Amino acid sequence: MTPEQPAMLAMLQAQHMREVLKERAESLAQVGEEASAVETVGLLLFRLGEEWYAVGIDRVREILNEYEVTRIPRVPDFILGVINVRGEIVSVTDIATLMRVPSRTEVDLDGVLPSAVIVANESCVSAIVVDEIGDIVDVPVDSLEPPLSTLDKTQGEYIAGSVYIDARLIGIANLDKVLEPIGENG
After folding, report:
1. Among 15, 78, 88, 121, which residue's Cβ finds the most Cβ atoms within 10 Å?
2. Domain segments of the chain: what residues?
3. Which CATH number describes the domain made up of 40-178?
């Protein structure tokens, strides 16, 4: 063996190692690209009575735990009144009453109110009263399902879809319907 051969052998081994590492890096990069290619939607979970629901996190402005409601006469029973949120007047909607879902929390305007989620769409902002705030979860868009056909007509129009999370069926609130101005349909 000549003196140049061990150096040449070491150089070939180093080059081979670089090629192997480059292939592994490219392979791992492709796995990351495939994983990020799954489109997800963020949902804020909340409970009404014994059932869990969700709203798209892109529609949530903030969560309130303490607030004071000013009543408004001659409005539907699901409108509890209005609140002042840093100078903006926001309606307070009892979504359980609107959806005709039994709620475990009694809404008492003279006492402590349950948590509220301020939600918005292009035309309206409202604080929806909920029994409990849950987690924020990301779910694959392809796991979203249409609403259950067993819902009654009144309840069904307020549910845009459903999704299973941790073996629980979660109804996804139809915020466009919830936030529809009063009297919009006559």
Report:
1. 78
2. 1-37, 40-178
3. 2.40.50.180
